[in-house]
Amino acid sequence: MGSFSLHASCLAKHNLPWSNGCSQNLNSLRIPALQQRGPGFLSRKASKILAFYGLKSPPYALDALEPYMSKRLLETHWGEHHHGYVEGLNKQLEKNDILYSYTLDELVKVTYNNGNPLPEFNNAAQVWNHDFFWESMQPGGGGMPELGLLQQIEKDFGSFTNFKEKFIEASLSLFGSGWVWLVLKRQEKRLEVVKTSNAVNPIAWDDIPLMSLDTWEHAYYQDYKHDRGKYVNAFMNHLVSWHVVTARIIRAEAFVNLGEPKIPVA
Ligand SMILES: [Fe+2]
């Protein structure tokens, strides 16, 4: 996952990352993912082509989720907050161009730095999180998951009602700002509800996210004031895209053998 847009003005003004200063920077970071890239990585960067991350649009019009999420809220949440994370990340990368050429997934994992986040982590993760969140919703969403996904939820949570209660309870009990996720635990081969604070994203410890809910106050205050419960229920009953979640778990099955029931591809 990740989006790039070329920014011509940066081609001329940046110091090259293989200068002495940046080599020291690279050594001090001691990032395994960088070291695994080998010498070819640095020579590829010698092309001097640098990239900025772009602001991805939600996959629907800004008024398409009304009345459950207003155009006014999306204009602020996407147009200002999400946009701000993109701009903040690009500004940081201007100063630390050793992190160029990563996909957004890689950037989130590398800057998480095993729980000692680098300065770029918050903006990188918030860009990832918001791209994923917009795609977790659709006009006319909510309702019940499709059959294969429903069976997997019933297998791991006992029933869809249990899952829903657990997800809502996690959303309401999350202190402060953060995110609630339905993830596939890669090692345990099961679904789980997890909550993370601030920008933290479970791909940092190799969970596979399937859906997410933004519980930062900026995600609902304009429509629901302090009533997070009303917002969470609107998300579950009218916004979450089970089609997208199904597509994500089908993709995840390429990496994790869930056994039976098998999620049908079509
Ligand atoms: Fe947000």
UniProtKB/TrEMBL annotation:
Its EC number is 1.15.1.1. Its cofactor is Fe cation. It is found in: Plastid, Chloroplast. Residues 149-248 form the Manganese/iron superoxide dismutase C-terminal domain. Transmembrane segments: none annotated. One of its GO terms (molecular function) is superoxide dismutase activity. It comes from the Eukaryota. It holds the Pfam family Sod_Fe_C. Gene3D superfamilies: Fe,Mn superoxide dismutase (SOD) domain (1.10.287.990), Iron/manganese superoxide dismutase, C-terminal domain (3.55.40.20). Residues 53-137 form the Manganese/iron superoxide dismutase N-terminal domain. Belongs to the iron/manganese superoxide dismutase family. This is superoxide dismutase. It comes from Rhodamnia argentea. The gene is LOC115753054.
